[in-house]
Specification:
With 85 residues, the chain is an alpha+beta fold. Helices cover 25% and strands 36% of the residues. Strand 1 and strand 2 (29-41) form a beta hairpin.
């Protein structure tokens, strides 16, 4: 699906989505070419709880929590500097 399809299918909802196909442009914006909605919610705390559960089980999945009020996702990558322990 495309973001516009998700917005139409789940108006005024929080959605947990997975990037099926995505890339990063020269401005570090993550472009979601193809996404799969996993679940819809009426509030963000419930959405984040499910996000954390899925991320804990499989941290390699590219998951996002967004509200369908957004016309575009506007996801930017942050470059982390430092040592992780």
């Amino acid at each position: 699906m495309k973001w516009e399809d998700v917005r139409q299918a789940f108006p005024e909802q929080w959605v947990l989505i997975e990037a099926v196909q995505a890339h990063t442009d020269e401005k570090s914006e993550r472009i979601l070419d193809e996404i799969a909605p996993l679940k819809k919610f009426s509030n963000s705390p419930d959405t984040m709880k499910v996000y954390q559960e899925i991320h804990r089980e499989d941290p390699g999945r590219e998951l996002y929590v967004l509200h369908t009020r957004r016309k575009e996702p506007y996801i930017f990558e942050k470059k982390w500097v430092g040592v992780r322990q």
